[in-house]
Predict the 3D structure of the following.
Amino acid sequence: MANSFSDKALRPVSPDGSVVGSGSAGTTAEIPGTSPSMMEPVTHHASTPPDKEFQFLLCGIDSLDLGLYVAWGPDWKRRLHLLDKKKQQARKEGGLLIGLPSGRSCIFKPGGKGENYRFHLQFEAYNLFIGKAARPGSSPNVYLSIAAKMLWHNGIETVLSWIAEDLKAIGGGLVQCIKVSRVDLCCDFWVSRGLSYEFLLSHKVTRNDKGKLFLDKNELQTYYVGDAKSPIELRIYNKGLEVKQNGTKLWFLELWRRESTEDIWRIEFQIRRPALKQFGINSIDDLKETQAGLWLYLTSKWFSLPSVPI
């Protein structure tokens, strides 16, 4: 039987579970303008594909990590002790199923995230990493990584409402501030003849000369620009093949409005905190307001395949 966070040791005590995003939009001087539509900067050229050799399918946020500044309830010390006990039990059992008053459940994982986040709770909609501090300091004391399926199907605001409920149940937590830590922006295209490394190498214009290549039987699978430590990293890869092989993401077919995963390629920018800070993106509102301009910068200044039909 599942454990429960609704017992006395973890009874919610905070009267308000609302999520408040804060932060300043800062300056976007390095981002060349914004647009009413986040798709406009990267899809204008694809609106009338030459000879129907490629087609725009989808554009949006595929990954989103947030730093949460959470003030826990007055009995946090006691709740922290209970979390430690559950973590020990999770280590013995390889994971512990937990039920919450909302009806949602999670798996209490044996590990954490680095030195700052001791506890890892895996929900269907997100992974939640919790530190020991009762109050946030200069850094977040809770880290949230939202699952891609939830972003595409439910949206950010819905998931944030769920996390507000769950934090109350876990420790009477109240979110005081949300800071964007990482965001992956992607566009998916159907490309009739696929992509090759030779094509990318001969036509790319980029600010980052670092890159790596993954092939399968001499066919391009993934092309990286930048590396794991870069503030911005680009991935161009065969998304259709990944969806087909993985088998758990076939719901993308409905979003793509296609019956087959063949010849579907993804262009994906991973933007980490140093770059987000430079672009003045701190809060969720900042991300919404500057997303179109960020797309324009990434696809015209950081990496582009200019004026070349596929």
Notes: The CA atoms of residues 160 and 233 lie 26 Å apart. Residues 284-302 form the longest helix (19 residues). The chain has two domains: 3-21+65-180, 40-63+182-304.
